[in-house]
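Handover notes (outgoing to incoming on-call)

Open items:
1. Thioredoxin domain-containing protein: sequence verified, structure written out, both below. Nothing else pending on this one.
2. Nothing else urgent.
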Amino acid sequence: MTAAAERPPGWRAPDLTLPDTHGTPVELASLRGGPCLVVFVPFAFSGTCTAELDALEADLPDLREAGVRVLGVSCDPVFALRAWREQRGYTFDLLSDFWPHGAAAHAFGVLDERTGAARRGSFLLDADGLVVWSVVNPAGVARDPGAHRAALRALRPSGSGSAHG
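Thioredoxin domain-containing protein structure tokens:
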């Protein structure tokens, strides 16, 4: 089977439940009805991941104007993500994929089995939970800071799209 990260647009995102920074379960399926951006990062507090999420925070006005819910996901434990969110002032949800370790990253096809961390993958889901845009970068390569804003072009008024990054 082809890894989710290598699939063309239009595949259904996995129905996952992950805890936020306070341990509250967030169900991806419950967010249907509006677009959602799922952003995987390898490690909390690392320089590249912090720079990427800082850029994402700066893009939030454009994303929220388009009605996009943003979820950052890492294999780090809830407590590390809470400290990172509080330190950086992120206003979007950070979700822990700690246990079962990397299950969400694996389901999206971005788990690096060698390191046990997620690769840098971003997935824009439409209101029906279909992936309309995605980008996955190799280890050590940061995402383009404008990629998430540019991904908004994949959303169409009907909630479907066909762009792939």
